[in-house]
Amino acid sequence: MSDMRTGGPVLRIEHLAISFHQYERGLRRRTVTPVVDMSLEAYAGEVLAIVGESGAGKSLVGMATLGLLPPNAEESGVVRFHGRALDHGARRRLAGHEVGLLPQSPAFLDPLSRVGTQLRRAAKLAGITDSRGAASEALQRRGMAPSVMRLYPHELSGGMARRVLFALATMAAPQLIFADEPTPGLHESSAAEVLADIRGLADSGSAVILVSHDIDQALTIANRVVVVRAGRTLEQAVPSQFAGDGSALRHPYSRALWRALPRHGFELPAGGIDSDLPRPAAAEVSVGAGAPGTVAL
Question: In degrees to the nearest 10, what's the CA dihedral of 89, 286, 231, 60?
């Protein structure tokens, strides 16, 4: 994919860290830090892919961007939208308007509400006056008949449910869309259709962040790729660097991740895929008023 950047980033995340305070066995407190130091930029008209192993903190970046972190989360770093630093509440107010979420599973649909009800609700939250007309138009853009509005989620096929999720995510024509693992479990042809739709969102002018553990899929539509591991951004690359044996990639983990794919025979470096990387940070533990300790994450 070519470089389409013409201005400043829609989203800029600078040194984001996210911790969760948990209590175990009475007053024993455990602090877990799944996101240690994440930085990235997303531009209009581009797909930025975030790739890495499960548990690397990829989805939490999206939850932070949308202001959807739970109350026991503690956050540091800066999240800027069009250059303006936003706190958690300001980001939450952008969700459903300037920022949209494309979740990974149709289970995000309300099983007790008809499709039309959910679409009209999304339109109202986006400030659209004619919610019924907007709902019908959103379905039409996704190739579905108005009759789909009368259906419940369990009456939809898998493909239809995905298209309804797309309609909900794009109801307000958001400037930034966070697509969180949208293809797991899909047949190859269905996954290709979803990826083409995501690429189309970027081509229509939105900035799109695609979270994926499937590097091959991400490379088919991404303009840039951010490699993450253990809550840290390790490298930003362009798709052409993921070629051959990956020698064009700068970070050893990026190269190891690429070479571990089936097409490369699951090649692993001596000592494992992360042998050249520091271990994740330990978590702080407090037990009442006693001395603090640490627990490995």
Answer: -30
Number of domains in the chain: 1
Q: Domain residues for 121? A: 105-173
Per residue in 100-159, pLDDT (tens digit) is 999 888 889 999 999 999 999 999 988 898 999 999 999 998 888 989 999 999 999 888
The answer to whether residue 126 is domain-embedded is yes
Environment class of 84 (CB within 10 Å of its CB; exposed 0-12, middle 13-18, buried 19+): exposed
This prediction has a pTM of 0.84
DSSP per position, 7-71: SS-SEEEEEEEEEEEEEETTTEEEEEEEEEEEEEEE-TT-EEEEE--TTSSHHHHHHHHTT---T
Q: How many CB atoms lie within 10 A of CB 210?
A: 28
88 assigned to some structural domain: no
Residue 115 in domain: yes
Q: What tens digit of pLDDT does each residue of 14-41 get?
A: 999 999 988 777 778 888 999 999 999 9
Q: Does residue 73 lie in a domain region?
A: no
